[in-house]
Design brief:
The structure is a single chain. With 120 residues, the protein is mainly beta. Helix content is 4%, strand content 56%. The protein has one helix at residues 28-32; strands at 2-7, 10-13, 18-26, 34-42, 49-54, 60-62, 70-75, 80-85, 94-102, 108-110, 114-119. The strands form two sheets. Strands 2, 4, 5, 6, 9, 10 and 11 form a seven-stranded mixed beta sheet that branches. The chain has a four-stranded antiparallel beta sheet with strand order 1-3-8-7. The N and C termini lie far apart (40 Å).
């Protein structure tokens, strides 16, 4: 089992910045099995969507609307993934969820979600 604990959400004005963190905990074998970690978001009335993801090796991908504004990073020693969000827009308002997937076990894990609200 893996637990994901997020932090860093909040209320910010348009153009501002926030940094989300997500720390994974669990047995050593479960943590080692995690390859991809990432962030999804879900706005009211909309489907959950992938924002960005990063592999253990550091390969990243971003949805088009956040490219150049958001940066994902990962500290494998701390089992933590970060999402630096700059130039925030009201349309970035959503609950942001941390996600982790295991290669060998094939299991997926979700954090509890953290609210990000961007005011215009």
């Amino acid at each position: 089992q893996v637990q994901l604990v997020e932090s860093g959400g909040g209320l910010v004005q348009a153009g501002g910045s926030l940094r989300l963190s997500c720390a994974a905990s669990g047995s050593i074998s479960s943590i080692i099995d995690i390859n991809v970690m990432g962030w999804y978001r879900q706005a009211p009335g909309k489907q959950r969507e992938l924002v960005s993801a990063i592999t253990r090796g550091g390969s990243t991908n971003y949805r088009y609307s956040v490219k150049g504004r958001f940066t994902i990073s990962r500290d494998n020693a701390k089992n933590t993934v970060y999402l630096q969000m700059n130039s925030l827009k009201p349309e970035d308002t959503a609950v942001y969820y941390c996600h982790a997937s295991q290669d060998y076990r094939g299991l997926d894990y979700w954090g509890q979600g953290t609210q990000v609200t961007v005011s215009s």
